[in-house]
Design the sequence.
């Protein structure tokens, strides 16, 4: 029996229906009231510069798979991201993907991005 299985057993006993799971880079919890909370991130993920607009360079979107079939409807992302240069991060959800876009005024190297995000939504 894995550690997650043991944790789930105790949570079921204590809270009647709470579940904890791990899928890829994500860990998530399903609460009995229908709310789901997932958290995950990456360290030093490479994002390649691809275009300029109004004197600002943009990195390509990084499309990250969210836990499969966890959320019903759109989850709300809350996240932080840092890079090897000053950048402004943006997070968005579409379908079953979390998108991270980093924009920066630096144009001479690709970005090494470390990000963490929390997704909140309904699972039922």
Sequence:
């Amino acid at each position: 029996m894995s550690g997650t299985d043991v944790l789930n057993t105790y949570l079921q006993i204590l809270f009647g229906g709470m579940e904890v799971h791990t899928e890829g880079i994500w860990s998530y919890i399903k609460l009995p009231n229908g709310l789901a909370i997932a958290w995950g991130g990456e360290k030093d993920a490479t994002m390649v510069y691809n275009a300029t607009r109004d004197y600002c360079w943009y990195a390509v979107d990084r499309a990250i798979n969210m836990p499969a079939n966890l959320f019903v409807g759109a989850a709300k992302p809350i996240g932080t991201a840092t890079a090897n240069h000053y950048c402004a991060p943006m997070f968005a959800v579409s379908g079953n993907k979390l998108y991270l876009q980093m924009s920066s005024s630096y144009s001479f190297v690709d970005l090494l991005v470390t990000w963490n995000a929390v997704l909140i939504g309904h699972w039922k």
